């Protein structure tokens, strides 16, 4: 009997979760292969915590091989081109792999080069190298004008910039230099988040702490000589320290395969996570062209797609629709936090922040590596 081949492109968080969950739900007649050359896997949500010494960065990184459950094949190469009609993927190492089912979990990439003037003196916290660099910068910071925010949409984890400025405020107070500092949060959106209730709570935190908030600021360029960041509308904000989240785009393999939109993300049916009319191609995580890039959403997508493929391969053909569920905890001032939970049919609602939710945020990495990425939760 021929085996059913499932190829998962991408060996980061969502790709591994999909593979591990699928392995738990299928037998030996299904061969699962992960394609990717990552040596280590980084739990990105803790990037907003590491610069403030609350978490050891070494605890947020694990060897990728150690996170892939038994019975899953791995090819250590990247995909070069996808041929949907031929059910083939050409790899950078020259190999051609064929599939019965394809799961695209290639994520996205940071493209700071898309912002003129973005150089080594501009900081961010979206990969481990820059998190460590930012942590060292904050050790010696003396105050001044500090500007924080995403350069453009979309970007990973919409609550991360707010979490960061709250942590920054606490650090500056601890160092005794908050009165010598001015914190400004810039965002390209009309409000903090697309949910008024949550945005209002966040803005109350800004007001209580004296953090400036500038919405509708889409970064055009950085003038490092004048120490200014300029928006597309011509607005200019001076800075002494600039922490600017780079623009995001989909991976090159998606673009070169003719499957992506202008920004390199893949349009999918949000209720099935399928690509176009191909019933054997699914897209999960940040590779999908969704306005919100949230790890918790990728987790739900992975579970859903693993269930769909498992039901197809055992002949039950489950036609349940994906409901878009996501839930995540976020840091708020005063060592408190709040947890958001919503789906396609509901909006997040929060009345207060609590110590319990703050604790949930701080232990999320332990839960993630011990249970979530393993496919247990």
Count of DSSP strands: 22
Query: What would you give as the CATH superfamily of the largest domain?
Result: FAD/NAD(P)-binding domain
Strand content range: 25-35%
Structural class: alpha/beta
> Which shape, going by the Cα principal axes?
globular
Residue-averaged pLDDT: 94
Termini, distance in Å? 32 Å
- Spans of at least 5 consecutive residues with low confidence: none
User: Biggest sheet, strands in spatial order?
Assistant: 5-2-1-9-20
CATH topology of the largest domain: FAD/NAD(P)-binding domain
Total domain modules: 2
The tally of helices reads 8
Portion in helices:
25-40%
> Which CATH architecture of the largest domain would you pick?
3-Layer(bba) Sandwich
| SSE pattern, N- to C-terminal | EHEEEHEEEEEEEHEHEHEEEEEEHEHEEH
- Report Rg: 21 Å
The biggest sheet, with number of strands, parallel, antiparallel or mixed sense and barrel status, is: 5 strands, parallel
Task: Quickly name the level 1 CATH class of the largest domain.
Answer: Alpha Beta
In short:
The protein has helices at residues 13-25, 64-67, 128-139, 160-174, 196-209, 252-256, 295-313, 355-372; strands at 4-9, 30-35, 40-42, 61-63, 73-75, 79-83, 88-91, 96-98, 101-104, 108-110, 122-123, 144-150, 181-186, 212-214, 219-223, 228-231, 236-238, 241-245, 248-250, 281-283, 326-332, 336-342. It is α/β, with parallel strands linked by helices. The protein has two domains: 4-50 and 61-107 and 251-325, FAD/NAD(P)-binding domain, CATH 3.50.50.60; 111-247, FAD/NAD(P)-binding domain (3-Layer(bba) Sandwich).
